[in-house]
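The records we work with from here on pair a chain with its fold. Here is one such record, which you should read through line by line:
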Amino acid sequence: MKLARKVGLLPLSAEPPGQEKTAILRALLLLVVLLSVLFRLLYVFYAGFSWEDAFIHFRIAENLANGIGFVYNPGERVLVSSAPFWTLLISVFPAVGLSVEGGSKLVSILAEVGTILLLAYLARRYVGPWAGVFAAAIYGLNWSVVYWSTSGMETALFTFVTLLGVYLYVNKRYVWMAVACGLMMWVRPEGALMTILLLLLTLKGLGIREALKHGAIAVAVVTPWVVFAWAYFGSPVPNSLTAKAVIYGGTAGSFMRNYLIIRNSFIGDPVRDLATLIALTGLAVAVLRRAGPVLLLTAWMVLWYFAYWLSQTALFQWYLIPPYSVYGILAGIGLAFIASIATSWARIPSSLTEIGKAAGALMLVLLLVALIVRERHNVQKNKEAELNIRVYISEWIDKHTQDNEAIAIEGIGVVGYMTDRYILDLAGLASPQVLPYWERQTVPWWKNADVLVDILKDLRPPYYVRQSVVTPLSPQAREWLFQNYRPLAIATRNGVVEAQGQPKLFQSLLERMESPAISDSDVAEMKRYHIIYARISS
Protein backbone atom coordinates (compact mmCIF):
# COMPACT_ATOMS: atom_id res chain seq x y z
CA MET A 1 0.00 0.00 0.00
CA LYS A 2 2.81 2.45 0.88
CA LEU A 3 4.60 1.65 -2.38
CA ALA A 4 1.39 2.23 -4.32
CA ARG A 5 0.94 5.64 -2.71
CA LYS A 6 4.60 6.51 -3.31
CA VAL A 7 4.42 5.95 -7.05
CA GLY A 8 1.07 7.73 -7.30
CA LEU A 9 -1.17 4.70 -7.80
CA LEU A 10 -3.64 5.94 -5.20
CA PRO A 11 -4.04 9.69 -5.74
CA LEU A 12 -7.78 9.52 -5.15
CA SER A 13 -9.13 10.48 -1.79
CA ALA A 14 -12.12 8.94 -0.10
CA GLU A 15 -12.15 11.82 2.35
CA PRO A 16 -15.05 14.26 2.13
CA PRO A 17 -14.24 17.18 -0.22
CA GLY A 18 -14.59 20.81 0.77
CA GLN A 19 -17.94 22.55 0.85
CA GLU A 20 -17.49 24.20 -2.56
CA LYS A 21 -16.45 20.95 -4.24
CA THR A 22 -19.28 19.11 -2.54
CA ALA A 23 -21.80 21.51 -4.07
CA ILE A 24 -20.29 21.00 -7.52
CA LEU A 25 -20.33 17.22 -7.17
CA ARG A 26 -23.90 17.17 -5.92
CA ALA A 27 -24.97 19.37 -8.79
CA LEU A 28 -23.24 17.08 -11.29
CA LEU A 29 -24.78 13.96 -9.76
CA LEU A 30 -28.21 15.60 -9.84
CA LEU A 31 -27.61 16.47 -13.50
CA VAL A 32 -26.69 12.86 -14.26
CA VAL A 33 -29.83 11.59 -12.53
CA LEU A 34 -32.09 14.07 -14.32
CA LEU A 35 -30.52 13.34 -17.70
CA SER A 36 -30.78 9.60 -17.05
CA VAL A 37 -34.50 9.97 -16.40
CA LEU A 38 -34.88 12.24 -19.42
CA PHE A 39 -32.92 9.76 -21.54
CA ARG A 40 -35.29 6.96 -20.54
CA LEU A 41 -38.41 9.05 -21.06
CA LEU A 42 -37.21 10.15 -24.48
CA TYR A 43 -36.47 6.58 -25.38
CA VAL A 44 -39.84 5.28 -24.17
CA PHE A 45 -41.86 7.93 -26.01
CA TYR A 46 -39.60 8.55 -29.00
CA ALA A 47 -38.20 5.19 -30.04
CA GLY A 48 -38.76 2.52 -27.42
CA PHE A 49 -40.98 -0.50 -27.22
CA SER A 50 -41.61 -3.41 -24.89
CA TRP A 51 -39.75 -6.59 -25.65
CA GLU A 52 -41.68 -9.66 -26.83
CA ASP A 53 -41.17 -11.60 -23.59
CA ALA A 54 -42.45 -8.69 -21.49
CA PHE A 55 -45.94 -9.18 -22.91
CA ILE A 56 -46.05 -12.61 -21.26
CA HIS A 57 -45.84 -10.85 -17.89
CA PHE A 58 -48.38 -8.28 -19.09
CA ARG A 59 -50.97 -10.93 -20.01
CA ILE A 60 -50.59 -12.75 -16.69
CA ALA A 61 -50.76 -9.45 -14.79
CA GLU A 62 -53.96 -8.42 -16.56
CA ASN A 63 -55.52 -11.84 -15.95
CA LEU A 64 -54.69 -11.42 -12.28
CA ALA A 65 -56.07 -7.87 -12.22
CA ASN A 66 -59.29 -9.08 -13.87
CA GLY A 67 -59.81 -11.86 -11.34
CA ILE A 68 -58.94 -14.70 -13.74
CA GLY A 69 -55.93 -15.79 -11.69
CA PHE A 70 -52.15 -15.90 -11.90
CA VAL A 71 -52.33 -17.73 -15.22
CA TYR A 72 -51.39 -17.23 -18.85
CA ASN A 73 -54.22 -19.29 -20.38
CA PRO A 74 -57.42 -19.04 -18.31
CA GLY A 75 -58.16 -22.32 -16.60
CA GLU A 76 -54.59 -23.66 -16.89
CA ARG A 77 -52.55 -23.35 -13.71
CA VAL A 78 -49.10 -23.25 -15.23
CA LEU A 79 -46.40 -21.09 -13.63
CA VAL A 80 -45.07 -19.24 -16.65
CA SER A 81 -43.50 -16.14 -15.10
CA SER A 82 -39.93 -16.53 -13.84
CA ALA A 83 -40.25 -13.10 -12.18
CA PRO A 84 -43.39 -13.54 -10.05
CA PHE A 85 -42.91 -10.46 -7.85
CA TRP A 86 -42.60 -8.31 -10.98
CA THR A 87 -45.80 -9.75 -12.41
CA LEU A 88 -47.64 -9.23 -9.13
CA LEU A 89 -46.35 -5.67 -8.85
CA ILE A 90 -47.46 -4.49 -12.29
CA SER A 91 -50.85 -6.18 -11.86
CA VAL A 92 -51.88 -3.40 -9.45
CA PHE A 93 -51.70 -0.63 -12.06
CA PRO A 94 -55.06 -1.27 -13.78
CA ALA A 95 -56.69 -0.56 -10.41
CA VAL A 96 -55.27 2.99 -10.48
CA GLY A 97 -56.02 3.65 -14.13
CA LEU A 98 -52.66 2.74 -15.68
CA SER A 99 -51.92 -0.07 -18.12
CA VAL A 100 -49.59 -2.82 -16.98
CA GLU A 101 -47.20 -1.81 -19.77
CA GLY A 102 -47.16 1.84 -18.69
CA GLY A 103 -46.80 0.80 -15.06
CA SER A 104 -43.81 -1.38 -15.93
CA LYS A 105 -42.06 1.61 -17.50
CA LEU A 106 -42.76 3.79 -14.47
CA VAL A 107 -41.45 1.23 -11.98
CA SER A 108 -38.38 0.57 -14.12
CA ILE A 109 -37.42 4.24 -14.35
CA LEU A 110 -37.86 4.74 -10.61
CA ALA A 111 -35.77 1.63 -9.95
CA GLU A 112 -33.07 2.92 -12.27
CA VAL A 113 -32.88 6.19 -10.32
CA GLY A 114 -32.31 4.14 -7.17
CA THR A 115 -29.64 2.05 -8.90
CA ILE A 116 -27.79 5.13 -10.15
CA LEU A 117 -27.74 6.68 -6.66
CA LEU A 118 -26.55 3.42 -5.08
CA LEU A 119 -23.76 3.09 -7.64
CA ALA A 120 -22.66 6.66 -6.93
CA TYR A 121 -22.74 6.00 -3.19
CA LEU A 122 -20.66 2.82 -3.33
CA ALA A 123 -18.03 4.27 -5.68
CA ARG A 124 -17.79 7.50 -3.68
CA ARG A 125 -17.62 5.80 -0.30
CA TYR A 126 -14.76 3.47 -1.15
CA VAL A 127 -12.76 5.42 -3.69
CA GLY A 128 -13.74 9.06 -4.05
CA PRO A 129 -16.47 11.54 -5.00
CA TRP A 130 -15.54 11.80 -8.66
CA ALA A 131 -15.68 8.03 -8.99
CA GLY A 132 -19.30 8.24 -7.82
CA VAL A 133 -20.23 10.82 -10.44
CA PHE A 134 -18.53 8.90 -13.23
CA ALA A 135 -20.07 5.56 -12.17
CA ALA A 136 -23.53 7.13 -12.17
CA ALA A 137 -23.01 8.65 -15.63
CA ILE A 138 -21.52 5.53 -17.21
CA TYR A 139 -24.41 3.35 -16.07
CA GLY A 140 -27.24 5.86 -16.16
CA LEU A 141 -26.55 7.04 -19.71
CA ASN A 142 -25.50 3.73 -21.23
CA TRP A 143 -27.54 2.93 -24.31
CA SER A 144 -27.77 -0.82 -23.73
CA VAL A 145 -28.89 -0.31 -20.14
CA VAL A 146 -31.57 2.18 -21.21
CA TYR A 147 -32.70 -0.14 -23.99
CA TRP A 148 -33.19 -3.20 -21.80
CA SER A 149 -34.16 -1.59 -18.51
CA THR A 150 -37.22 0.02 -20.12
CA SER A 151 -38.19 -3.06 -22.15
CA GLY A 152 -41.00 -4.07 -19.81
CA MET A 153 -38.92 -6.80 -18.17
CA GLU A 154 -37.96 -7.04 -14.49
CA THR A 155 -34.33 -6.13 -15.25
CA ALA A 156 -34.29 -2.68 -13.62
CA LEU A 157 -36.12 -3.79 -10.48
CA PHE A 158 -33.85 -6.79 -9.97
CA THR A 159 -30.71 -4.68 -10.41
CA PHE A 160 -31.94 -2.13 -7.86
CA VAL A 161 -32.94 -4.70 -5.23
CA THR A 162 -29.57 -6.45 -5.59
CA LEU A 163 -27.59 -3.25 -5.08
CA LEU A 164 -29.92 -2.29 -2.24
CA GLY A 165 -28.99 -5.51 -0.47
CA VAL A 166 -25.30 -4.63 -0.78
CA TYR A 167 -25.94 -1.08 0.44
CA LEU A 168 -27.77 -2.38 3.51
CA TYR A 169 -24.92 -4.80 4.23
CA VAL A 170 -22.38 -1.98 3.96
CA ASN A 171 -24.36 0.06 6.48
CA LYS A 172 -24.78 -2.94 8.82
CA ARG A 173 -28.54 -2.98 8.54
CA TYR A 174 -28.56 -6.75 8.44
CA VAL A 175 -32.26 -7.39 9.03
CA TRP A 176 -33.24 -5.19 6.10
CA MET A 177 -30.43 -6.75 4.08
CA ALA A 178 -32.06 -10.13 4.68
CA VAL A 179 -35.43 -8.74 3.59
CA ALA A 180 -33.82 -7.44 0.39
CA CYS A 181 -32.30 -10.89 -0.18
CA GLY A 182 -35.70 -12.52 0.07
CA LEU A 183 -37.08 -9.95 -2.35
CA MET A 184 -34.22 -10.64 -4.80
CA MET A 185 -35.17 -14.31 -4.94
CA TRP A 186 -38.83 -13.39 -5.36
CA VAL A 187 -38.06 -11.07 -8.27
CA ARG A 188 -35.82 -13.63 -9.99
CA PRO A 189 -34.47 -17.04 -8.94
CA GLU A 190 -30.94 -15.80 -9.70
CA GLY A 191 -31.28 -13.60 -6.62
CA ALA A 192 -30.08 -16.65 -4.68
CA LEU A 193 -26.52 -15.98 -5.90
CA MET A 194 -26.17 -12.57 -4.20
CA THR A 195 -28.10 -13.88 -1.19
CA ILE A 196 -25.52 -16.64 -0.69
CA LEU A 197 -22.62 -14.20 -1.05
CA LEU A 198 -24.09 -11.76 1.48
CA LEU A 199 -24.87 -14.51 3.97
CA LEU A 200 -21.32 -15.86 3.65
CA LEU A 201 -19.98 -12.40 4.47
CA THR A 202 -22.40 -12.22 7.40
CA LEU A 203 -21.14 -15.59 8.57
CA LYS A 204 -17.54 -14.36 8.39
CA GLY A 205 -18.26 -11.09 10.17
CA LEU A 206 -20.95 -11.98 12.72
CA GLY A 207 -20.74 -15.72 13.16
CA ILE A 208 -22.94 -18.65 12.33
CA ARG A 209 -25.81 -17.72 14.64
CA GLU A 210 -26.37 -14.31 13.02
CA ALA A 211 -25.92 -15.75 9.55
CA LEU A 212 -28.56 -18.39 10.21
CA LYS A 213 -30.92 -15.79 11.67
CA HIS A 214 -30.66 -13.50 8.67
CA GLY A 215 -30.84 -16.43 6.29
CA ALA A 216 -34.10 -17.43 7.99
CA ILE A 217 -35.45 -13.89 7.47
CA ALA A 218 -34.61 -14.04 3.76
CA VAL A 219 -36.33 -17.40 3.44
CA ALA A 220 -39.35 -16.12 5.38
CA VAL A 221 -39.79 -13.25 2.91
CA VAL A 222 -39.98 -15.55 -0.11
CA THR A 223 -41.79 -18.44 1.63
CA PRO A 224 -45.36 -17.08 1.14
CA TRP A 225 -44.81 -17.13 -2.61
CA VAL A 226 -43.26 -20.62 -2.53
CA VAL A 227 -46.19 -21.97 -0.49
CA PHE A 228 -48.73 -20.34 -2.80
CA ALA A 229 -46.96 -21.56 -5.95
CA TRP A 230 -46.77 -25.10 -4.62
CA ALA A 231 -50.45 -25.13 -3.77
CA TYR A 232 -51.65 -23.29 -6.89
CA PHE A 233 -49.32 -24.62 -9.59
CA GLY A 234 -48.02 -27.82 -8.03
CA SER A 235 -44.43 -26.52 -7.98
CA PRO A 236 -42.62 -23.24 -7.28
CA VAL A 237 -40.29 -23.89 -10.22
CA PRO A 238 -41.44 -21.87 -13.25
CA ASN A 239 -42.39 -24.03 -16.20
CA SER A 240 -40.62 -21.50 -18.40
CA LEU A 241 -37.28 -22.46 -16.81
CA THR A 242 -37.99 -26.13 -17.43
CA ALA A 243 -38.96 -25.43 -21.03
CA LYS A 244 -35.81 -23.44 -21.73
CA ALA A 245 -33.67 -26.18 -20.21
CA VAL A 246 -35.37 -28.75 -22.46
CA ILE A 247 -35.23 -26.72 -25.66
CA TYR A 248 -31.92 -24.90 -25.29
CA GLY A 249 -29.95 -26.74 -22.63
CA GLY A 250 -26.90 -28.61 -23.80
CA THR A 251 -27.54 -27.95 -27.47
CA ALA A 252 -24.58 -28.21 -29.77
CA GLY A 253 -22.54 -25.04 -29.99
CA SER A 254 -24.31 -23.21 -27.17
CA PHE A 255 -21.21 -23.34 -24.95
CA MET A 256 -19.13 -21.31 -27.37
CA ARG A 257 -22.12 -19.20 -28.45
CA ASN A 258 -22.71 -18.00 -24.89
CA TYR A 259 -19.00 -17.34 -24.47
CA LEU A 260 -18.98 -15.15 -27.57
CA ILE A 261 -22.08 -13.23 -26.45
CA ILE A 262 -20.49 -12.46 -23.08
CA ARG A 263 -17.10 -11.66 -24.58
CA ASN A 264 -18.57 -9.36 -27.21
CA SER A 265 -20.29 -7.37 -24.46
CA PHE A 266 -16.87 -6.18 -23.28
CA ILE A 267 -14.45 -6.34 -26.22
CA GLY A 268 -14.60 -6.30 -29.98
CA ASP A 269 -14.22 -2.66 -31.05
CA PRO A 270 -12.03 0.24 -29.90
CA VAL A 271 -14.73 1.80 -27.70
CA ARG A 272 -15.54 -1.41 -25.84
CA ASP A 273 -11.87 -2.34 -25.57
CA LEU A 274 -11.02 1.04 -24.05
CA ALA A 275 -13.99 0.91 -21.67
CA THR A 276 -12.98 -2.55 -20.46
CA LEU A 277 -9.40 -1.40 -19.95
CA ILE A 278 -10.68 1.50 -17.84
CA ALA A 279 -12.90 -0.91 -15.85
CA LEU A 280 -9.91 -3.21 -15.20
CA THR A 281 -8.01 -0.17 -13.99
CA GLY A 282 -10.90 0.54 -11.63
CA LEU A 283 -10.76 -3.05 -10.39
CA ALA A 284 -7.05 -2.68 -9.62
CA VAL A 285 -7.77 0.50 -7.66
CA ALA A 286 -10.59 -1.25 -5.76
CA VAL A 287 -8.20 -4.08 -4.84
CA LEU A 288 -5.54 -1.65 -3.60
CA ARG A 289 -8.19 0.28 -1.71
CA ARG A 290 -9.51 -2.96 -0.23
CA ALA A 291 -12.97 -1.81 -1.22
CA GLY A 292 -14.74 -4.95 -0.02
CA PRO A 293 -18.28 -4.24 -1.29
CA VAL A 294 -16.94 -3.29 -4.73
CA LEU A 295 -14.99 -6.54 -4.83
CA LEU A 296 -18.11 -8.40 -3.64
CA LEU A 297 -20.05 -6.97 -6.56
CA THR A 298 -17.21 -7.86 -8.92
CA ALA A 299 -17.26 -11.46 -7.69
CA TRP A 300 -21.03 -11.51 -8.18
CA MET A 301 -20.64 -10.23 -11.76
CA VAL A 302 -18.02 -12.84 -12.63
CA LEU A 303 -20.02 -15.69 -11.08
CA TRP A 304 -23.19 -14.51 -12.82
CA TYR A 305 -21.62 -14.50 -16.28
CA PHE A 306 -19.78 -17.74 -15.63
CA ALA A 307 -22.98 -19.49 -14.51
CA TYR A 308 -24.83 -18.40 -17.64
CA TRP A 309 -21.90 -19.48 -19.76
CA LEU A 310 -21.88 -22.96 -18.22
CA SER A 311 -25.67 -23.25 -18.34
CA GLN A 312 -25.55 -23.65 -22.14
CA THR A 313 -29.07 -22.25 -22.33
CA ALA A 314 -30.10 -19.44 -24.66
CA LEU A 315 -28.45 -16.26 -23.43
CA PHE A 316 -30.67 -13.25 -24.01
CA GLN A 317 -29.28 -9.76 -23.69
CA TRP A 318 -31.43 -8.72 -20.71
CA TYR A 319 -29.75 -11.47 -18.69
CA LEU A 320 -26.47 -9.56 -18.99
CA ILE A 321 -27.71 -6.19 -17.73
CA PRO A 322 -27.99 -6.59 -13.90
CA PRO A 323 -24.26 -7.24 -13.30
CA TYR A 324 -23.44 -4.57 -15.86
CA SER A 325 -24.06 -2.12 -13.03
CA VAL A 326 -20.81 -3.43 -11.51
CA TYR A 327 -19.08 -2.65 -14.78
CA GLY A 328 -20.34 0.93 -14.33
CA ILE A 329 -18.81 1.15 -10.85
CA LEU A 330 -15.44 -0.21 -12.01
CA ALA A 331 -15.33 2.02 -15.09
CA GLY A 332 -16.27 5.03 -12.96
CA ILE A 333 -13.47 4.28 -10.51
CA GLY A 334 -11.02 3.72 -13.34
CA LEU A 335 -11.99 6.93 -15.13
CA ALA A 336 -11.70 8.98 -11.95
CA PHE A 337 -8.32 7.41 -11.24
CA ILE A 338 -7.00 8.16 -14.73
CA ALA A 339 -8.27 11.75 -14.53
CA SER A 340 -6.61 12.18 -11.15
CA ILE A 341 -3.31 10.73 -12.40
CA ALA A 342 -3.35 12.97 -15.47
CA THR A 343 -4.01 16.16 -13.52
CA SER A 344 -1.50 15.20 -10.81
CA TRP A 345 1.34 14.50 -13.21
CA ALA A 346 0.53 17.54 -15.34
CA ARG A 347 0.54 19.68 -12.17
CA ILE A 348 -2.68 21.40 -13.10
CA PRO A 349 -4.00 23.78 -10.39
CA SER A 350 -6.76 22.23 -8.30
CA SER A 351 -9.30 24.87 -9.36
CA LEU A 352 -8.73 24.07 -13.04
CA THR A 353 -8.75 20.36 -12.24
CA GLU A 354 -12.26 20.52 -10.87
CA ILE A 355 -13.44 22.63 -13.80
CA GLY A 356 -11.82 20.17 -16.22
CA LYS A 357 -13.45 17.18 -14.55
CA ALA A 358 -16.81 18.90 -14.57
CA ALA A 359 -16.40 19.82 -18.25
CA GLY A 360 -15.35 16.25 -19.05
CA ALA A 361 -18.36 14.85 -17.21
CA LEU A 362 -20.66 17.24 -19.06
CA MET A 363 -19.15 16.26 -22.43
CA LEU A 364 -19.63 12.58 -21.54
CA VAL A 365 -23.25 13.24 -20.67
CA LEU A 366 -23.92 15.12 -23.92
CA LEU A 367 -22.20 12.41 -25.95
CA LEU A 368 -24.25 9.65 -24.38
CA VAL A 369 -27.52 11.56 -24.75
CA ALA A 370 -26.75 12.02 -28.45
CA LEU A 371 -26.79 8.24 -28.86
CA ILE A 372 -30.58 8.18 -28.81
CA VAL A 373 -30.58 9.97 -32.17
CA ARG A 374 -27.88 7.75 -33.63
CA GLU A 375 -29.53 4.53 -32.48
CA ARG A 376 -33.07 5.49 -33.46
CA HIS A 377 -32.80 3.71 -36.83
CA ASN A 378 -31.69 0.42 -35.27
CA VAL A 379 -34.40 0.65 -32.63
CA GLN A 380 -37.05 1.26 -35.25
CA LYS A 381 -35.84 -1.78 -37.21
CA ASN A 382 -36.14 -3.93 -34.10
CA LYS A 383 -39.54 -2.45 -33.39
CA GLU A 384 -40.74 -3.34 -36.87
CA ALA A 385 -39.37 -6.84 -36.61
CA GLU A 386 -40.25 -7.72 -33.02
CA LEU A 387 -43.40 -5.71 -32.34
CA ASN A 388 -45.16 -4.42 -35.44
CA ILE A 389 -45.31 -7.80 -37.19
CA ARG A 390 -46.80 -9.43 -34.13
CA VAL A 391 -49.33 -6.60 -33.83
CA TYR A 392 -50.41 -7.28 -37.41
CA ILE A 393 -50.77 -10.99 -36.60
CA SER A 394 -52.87 -10.17 -33.52
CA GLU A 395 -55.18 -7.90 -35.49
CA TRP A 396 -55.63 -10.57 -38.16
CA ILE A 397 -56.40 -13.21 -35.53
CA ASP A 398 -58.98 -10.98 -33.84
CA LYS A 399 -60.67 -10.38 -37.18
CA HIS A 400 -60.61 -13.88 -38.68
CA THR A 401 -60.86 -16.34 -35.80
CA GLN A 402 -63.44 -17.22 -33.18
CA ASP A 403 -62.99 -16.61 -29.45
CA ASN A 404 -62.91 -20.34 -28.68
CA GLU A 405 -60.29 -21.24 -31.32
CA ALA A 406 -56.72 -22.00 -30.27
CA ILE A 407 -53.65 -20.43 -31.85
CA ALA A 408 -50.41 -22.40 -31.99
CA ILE A 409 -47.39 -20.09 -32.05
CA GLU A 410 -43.75 -20.05 -30.94
CA GLY A 411 -43.59 -16.42 -29.73
CA ILE A 412 -46.46 -16.01 -27.26
CA GLY A 413 -45.83 -12.48 -25.97
CA VAL A 414 -47.52 -9.85 -28.12
CA VAL A 415 -50.03 -12.17 -29.79
CA GLY A 416 -51.08 -13.64 -26.44
CA TYR A 417 -51.44 -10.19 -24.86
CA MET A 418 -53.36 -8.58 -27.71
CA THR A 419 -55.83 -11.41 -28.29
CA ASP A 420 -58.16 -13.29 -25.95
CA ARG A 421 -57.49 -16.59 -27.68
CA TYR A 422 -56.19 -19.76 -26.12
CA ILE A 423 -52.49 -19.93 -26.96
CA LEU A 424 -50.74 -23.24 -27.56
CA ASP A 425 -47.13 -22.32 -26.86
CA LEU A 426 -45.00 -24.39 -29.22
CA ALA A 427 -41.88 -23.50 -27.22
CA GLY A 428 -43.46 -24.97 -24.09
CA LEU A 429 -43.16 -21.98 -21.73
CA ALA A 430 -46.93 -21.83 -21.19
CA SER A 431 -47.79 -25.30 -22.55
CA PRO A 432 -45.96 -28.09 -20.73
CA GLN A 433 -47.81 -30.68 -22.83
CA VAL A 434 -45.45 -29.97 -25.76
CA LEU A 435 -42.22 -30.54 -23.82
CA PRO A 436 -42.15 -34.35 -24.35
CA TYR A 437 -41.94 -33.67 -28.07
CA TRP A 438 -38.86 -31.50 -27.58
CA GLU A 439 -37.29 -34.05 -25.25
CA ARG A 440 -37.41 -36.60 -28.08
CA GLN A 441 -35.66 -34.19 -30.46
CA THR A 442 -32.25 -35.59 -31.43
CA VAL A 443 -30.85 -32.53 -33.20
CA PRO A 444 -30.75 -28.84 -32.16
CA TRP A 445 -34.06 -27.05 -32.71
CA TRP A 446 -32.62 -24.58 -35.22
CA LYS A 447 -31.56 -27.40 -37.57
CA ASN A 448 -34.87 -29.19 -37.87
CA ALA A 449 -38.43 -27.99 -37.20
CA ASP A 450 -40.11 -31.38 -37.68
CA VAL A 451 -40.91 -31.43 -33.96
CA LEU A 452 -43.38 -28.58 -34.58
CA VAL A 453 -45.17 -30.69 -37.15
CA ASP A 454 -45.27 -33.61 -34.70
CA ILE A 455 -47.02 -31.33 -32.19
CA LEU A 456 -49.53 -30.20 -34.83
CA LYS A 457 -50.25 -33.81 -35.79
CA ASP A 458 -51.25 -34.79 -32.27
CA LEU A 459 -52.79 -31.62 -30.83
CA ARG A 460 -54.45 -30.34 -34.03
CA PRO A 461 -54.84 -26.62 -33.18
CA PRO A 462 -57.19 -24.73 -35.55
CA TYR A 463 -54.53 -22.14 -36.41
CA TYR A 464 -50.76 -22.22 -36.60
CA VAL A 465 -48.43 -19.23 -36.90
CA ARG A 466 -45.08 -20.33 -38.25
CA GLN A 467 -42.22 -17.99 -37.36
CA SER A 468 -39.00 -19.88 -37.95
CA VAL A 469 -39.47 -20.27 -41.69
CA VAL A 470 -35.71 -20.50 -42.21
CA THR A 471 -35.61 -23.56 -39.95
CA PRO A 472 -35.83 -26.46 -42.40
CA LEU A 473 -38.58 -29.05 -42.49
CA SER A 474 -37.99 -32.51 -43.88
CA PRO A 475 -39.82 -33.26 -47.16
CA GLN A 476 -42.22 -35.55 -45.28
CA ALA A 477 -43.04 -32.92 -42.65
CA ARG A 478 -43.50 -30.25 -45.31
CA GLU A 479 -45.86 -32.50 -47.26
CA TRP A 480 -47.95 -33.27 -44.17
CA LEU A 481 -48.15 -29.59 -43.23
CA PHE A 482 -49.51 -28.54 -46.64
CA GLN A 483 -51.94 -31.45 -46.74
CA ASN A 484 -53.42 -30.59 -43.35
CA TYR A 485 -52.95 -26.82 -42.98
CA ARG A 486 -53.76 -24.16 -45.53
CA PRO A 487 -51.67 -20.93 -45.60
CA LEU A 488 -54.04 -17.97 -45.35
CA ALA A 489 -51.83 -14.93 -44.80
CA ILE A 490 -48.25 -13.75 -44.41
CA ALA A 491 -47.38 -11.08 -41.88
CA THR A 492 -44.59 -8.73 -42.96
CA ARG A 493 -43.14 -5.58 -41.47
CA ASN A 494 -45.49 -3.59 -43.71
CA GLY A 495 -48.71 -5.43 -42.89
CA VAL A 496 -50.48 -8.69 -43.68
CA VAL A 497 -50.63 -10.11 -47.20
CA GLU A 498 -53.70 -12.33 -47.54
CA ALA A 499 -54.07 -15.20 -49.99
CA GLN A 500 -57.51 -14.02 -51.09
CA GLY A 501 -56.79 -10.31 -51.30
CA GLN A 502 -53.34 -10.35 -52.94
CA PRO A 503 -52.93 -13.83 -54.47
CA LYS A 504 -49.92 -13.09 -56.69
CA LEU A 505 -47.89 -11.32 -54.01
CA PHE A 506 -48.92 -13.93 -51.46
CA GLN A 507 -47.83 -16.82 -53.68
CA SER A 508 -44.52 -15.15 -54.47
CA LEU A 509 -43.72 -14.63 -50.79
CA LEU A 510 -44.83 -18.14 -49.89
CA GLU A 511 -42.59 -19.71 -52.51
CA ARG A 512 -39.60 -17.75 -51.25
CA MET A 513 -40.29 -18.54 -47.61
CA GLU A 514 -41.03 -22.23 -48.06
CA SER A 515 -38.22 -22.91 -50.48
CA PRO A 516 -36.23 -25.99 -49.35
CA ALA A 517 -33.04 -24.15 -50.32
CA ILE A 518 -33.60 -20.60 -49.15
CA SER A 519 -30.71 -18.36 -50.16
CA ASP A 520 -28.46 -16.68 -47.64
CA SER A 521 -29.48 -13.28 -48.98
CA ASP A 522 -33.13 -14.06 -48.18
CA VAL A 523 -32.56 -15.40 -44.68
CA ALA A 524 -32.28 -12.03 -42.91
CA GLU A 525 -35.51 -10.82 -44.51
CA MET A 526 -37.53 -14.02 -44.51
CA LYS A 527 -36.93 -14.92 -40.88
CA ARG A 528 -38.90 -11.79 -39.94
CA TYR A 529 -41.98 -12.91 -41.85
CA HIS A 530 -44.69 -15.15 -40.39
CA ILE A 531 -47.08 -17.52 -42.15
CA ILE A 532 -50.58 -17.97 -40.70
CA TYR A 533 -52.05 -21.40 -41.40
CA ALA A 534 -55.57 -22.75 -40.80
CA ARG A 535 -56.27 -26.43 -40.25
CA ILE A 536 -58.06 -28.12 -43.13
CA SER A 537 -61.22 -29.78 -41.86
CA SER A 538 -61.26 -33.54 -42.27
